[in-house]
Fold:
Amino acid sequence: MCSASALSFLAFMIAVIGMKCTQCTGNNKRIKGHILLTAGILFILSGIVVFIPVCWVANTIIRDF
Structure:
């Protein structure tokens, strides 16, 4: 869960860099698109990282019940 939080924070910071209102990369829309794509992939990966331990605990509870 801690790694998912860290991954989400990293994705958020990358997404902030890729927003239209920032000038970190100039006005190059292609680069900003790639940055936002990377942030989106990291957000999805962080959701998977959260989902794995939840399923693991649910499986353990169901198996022991």
Q: What stands out?
A: Helices lie at 2-18, 29-64. The chain has one domain: 2-64.
